[in-house]
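Per your request, structure below.
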């Protein structure tokens, strides 16, 4: 806490909060304008960007500095976001929503889903108006109470220290305009789909298997991919019943249907194929054997501002299983 109060530069200045055992990253948190110009961001910068968006939409949002467990099993620092609903019992977990800026997860029932939250600890929270250090007995996510008005649980930095820093970091040029997308999504979809088809055919050829494409099956997959992107944006599932009905009509009696959808933020077919090979479900589809085996593939691209792009692909197969006598 002494370091924080002495430096006071906790928003987007060159201060590192990493513990010695965490992987070393850059000590510089760039401004929003720089992040947009670079077209990429660190873990911390993504958390700050998400918190700024939530705050702009009227939510009482804070950046959360804590830790999570990497695939290697080691702890590393992360910046998540938390939004608090006025008038709710924050200490009991009500009205508290945690946001994962990397995985896109949203966790709004801490009491029920704390075991499913990939966030281990909470060290402090902050936004442009407040900085609060967690001084509770345990910083484990399952024990943290977000009753930020309770001085026994949260130590607030004085506003006299917070406001000058926030004001010095406020852009003087006004809102930063976002550049419109220049992506031609139709060309991207066709190019990625053609290349992926060739990669799938080559992969199955090495397995000694022939590949037959079903154009109608691929067309049916389009509606599902559009629905998946909508769900990621608004958090509501749409069109699932219609898709299931279409699949049932397209798959003959006694046949099996399998599908694997996955989202990417790039348009490199080779990397996409690598992801398919790394998935157990996709591997099973790629190695399908049986009678009447036919594949469907669909690519849907969604362009956003500042050259951001979301690319969904779905690989599907329908076939009649062969029963060994």
């Amino acid at each position: 806490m002494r370091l924080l109060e002495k430096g006071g530069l906790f928003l987007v200045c060159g201060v590192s909060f990493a513990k010695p055992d965490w992987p070393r990253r850059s000590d510089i948190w760039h401004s929003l304008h720089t992040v947009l110009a670079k077209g990429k961001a660190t873990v911390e910068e993504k958390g700050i960007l998400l918190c700024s968006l939530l705050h702009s939409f009227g939510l009482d949002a804070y950046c959360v500095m804590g830790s999570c467990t990497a695939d290697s099993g080691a702890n590393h620092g992360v910046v998540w976001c938390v939004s608090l609903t006025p008038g709710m019992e924050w200490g009991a977990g009500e009205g508290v929503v945690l946001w994962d800026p990397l995985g896109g997860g949203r966790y709004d029932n801490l009491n029920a889903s704390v075991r499913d939250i990939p966030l281990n600890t909470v060290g402090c929270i902050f936004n442009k108006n407040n900085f609060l250090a967690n001084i509770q007995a345990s910083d484990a996510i399952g024990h943290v109470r977000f009753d930020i008005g309770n001085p026994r649980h949260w130590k607030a930095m004085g506003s006299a220290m917070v406001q000058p820093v926030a004001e010095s970091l406020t852009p003087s040029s006004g809102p930063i305009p976002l550049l419109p997308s220049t992506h031609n999504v139709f060309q991207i979809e066709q190019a990625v789909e053609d290349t992926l088809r060739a990669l799938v055919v080559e992969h199955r050829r090495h397995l000694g298997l022939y590949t037959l494409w079903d154009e109608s099956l691929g067309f049916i997959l389009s509606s599902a991919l559009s629905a998946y992107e909508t769900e990621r944006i608004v958090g509501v599932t749409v069109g699932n019943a219609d898709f299931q009905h279409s699949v049932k009509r397209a798959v003959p009696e006694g046949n099996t249907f399998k599908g694997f959808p996955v989202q990417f933020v790039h348009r490199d077919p080779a990397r996409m194929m690598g992801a398919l090979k790394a998935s157990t479900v996709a591997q099973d589809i790629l190695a399908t054997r049986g009678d009447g085996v036919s594949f469907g593939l669909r690519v849907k691209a969604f362009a956003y501002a500042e050259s951001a792009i979301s690319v969904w692909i779905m690989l599907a197969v329908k076939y009649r299983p062969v029963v060994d006598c």
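Strands lie at 60-69, 75-84, 96-99, 106-107, 121-126, 131-134, 154-156, 256-264, 291-303, 309-320.

Regards,
D.
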